[in-house]
Design brief:
Blueprint: E1 14-19, E2 22-31, H1 36-48, E3 54-64, H2 66-81, E4 86-89, H3 93-102, E5 109-111
Helix pairs in contact: 1-2
Length: 112
């Protein structure tokens, strides 16, 4: 069945994959309260993994809400507490603005 209300809706908006130099979390589409379970699973995966740098790829993210901002803050504390860096990559203008309004852009490493 086609989602006519959200034609760009991706069935799995959160992907967590191991790469040579750490982990990458890719967020796709609108990441909001409906994505909480998947964000929590990604957090658990990272928590269970060997400590390593983590990159959050925001290049395909069209919207984030306070749930996602909370996830990013929580993830930052986990990764930083293990002696590694969390980097947010390629946020759209809307996503960057949400981080700016929340103040997270002053705490997190954000790369265009």
């Amino acid at each position: 069945m086609t989602d006519t209300l959200h034609p760009d809706h991706h069935p799995d908006p959160v992907h967590c994959v191991q790469v040579a130099d750490g982990l990458v979390v890719r967020l796709i589409g609108d990441i909001d309260m409906s994505s909480w379970a998947r964000l929590d699973e990604a957090y658990d995966t990272i928590h269970a993994a060997e400590p390593c740098p983590v990159t959050v790829d925001l290049s395909a993210t069209t919207f984030i809400d306070s749930t996602t901002l909370g996830f990013l803050a929580r993830l930052h504390e986990l990764v930083k507490g293990r002696g590694h860096e969390l980097v947010l990559e390629s946020p759209s203008r809307i996503v960057a603005r949400a981080m700016e309004v929340s103040g997270l852009n002053r705490v997190l490493t954000v790369r265009p």
